[in-house]
C-alpha cells in the first residue's frame, strides 16, 4: 500500500510543474518523479504530465506560427491556447487531489510515453 498523502502531493506537483515555467525547465520535475518514485500512480501522472508538456509546446509553436503568418489577426487564438492550457492543468490537479488512486488523463493530447 502506498501513502495517499504522498501520492496526492507528488501527483499534484507533477501536473502543477507546468505553472513553474513555460520553458523546458518545468518538465524536469515530472521527469525526476518518473525516475525517483516507485508509486505506479505517481509514475502514470508524471508520464501524463510530460506528454502534456510536449503537447503544449507543439501547439504553442503552431499557434505562434499562425499568428505570425496572419500578421496578428489570429492573436485571440493565443488567449484560447492559454485558457485551455491553464484550465486543463487546474482540472488535472483537482482530479488527482480528489481521486488519488486513479491517474489523470488529459483529453485530446498525443501521448509519446
TrEMBL record:
InterPro entries per UniProt: MamF_MmsF
Protein name, entry field: DUF4870 domain-containing protein
Pfam families linked: MamF_MmsF (PF09685)
Keywords: Membrane, Transmembrane, Transmembrane helix
Source organism, top-level taxon: Bacteria
Subcellular location: Membrane
Keyword check for Cytoplasm: no
Main location: membrane
This protein's record includes keyword Transmembrane: yes
Topological category with respect to the lipid bilayer: Multi-pass membrane protein
Amino acid at each position: 500500500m502506498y501513502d495517499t498523502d504522498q501520492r496526492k502531493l507528488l501527483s499534484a506537483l507533477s501536473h502543477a510543474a507546468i505553472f513553474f515555467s513555460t520553458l523546458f525547465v518545468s518538465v524536469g520535475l515530472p521527469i525526476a518523479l518518473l525516475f525517483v518514485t516507485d508509486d505506479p500512480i505517481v509514475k502514470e501522472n508524471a508520464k501524463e504530465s510530460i506528454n502534456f508538456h510536449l503537447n503544449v509546446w507543439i501547439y504553442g509553436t503552431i499557434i505562434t506560427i499562425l499568428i505570425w503568418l496572419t500578421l496578428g489577426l489570429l492573436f485571440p487564438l493565443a488567449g484560447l491556447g492559454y485558457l485551455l492550457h491553464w484550465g486543463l492543468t487546474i482540472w488535472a490537479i483537482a482530479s488527482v487531489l480528489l481521486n488519488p488512486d486513479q491517474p489523470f488523463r488529459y483529453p485530446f493530447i498525443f501521448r509519446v510515453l
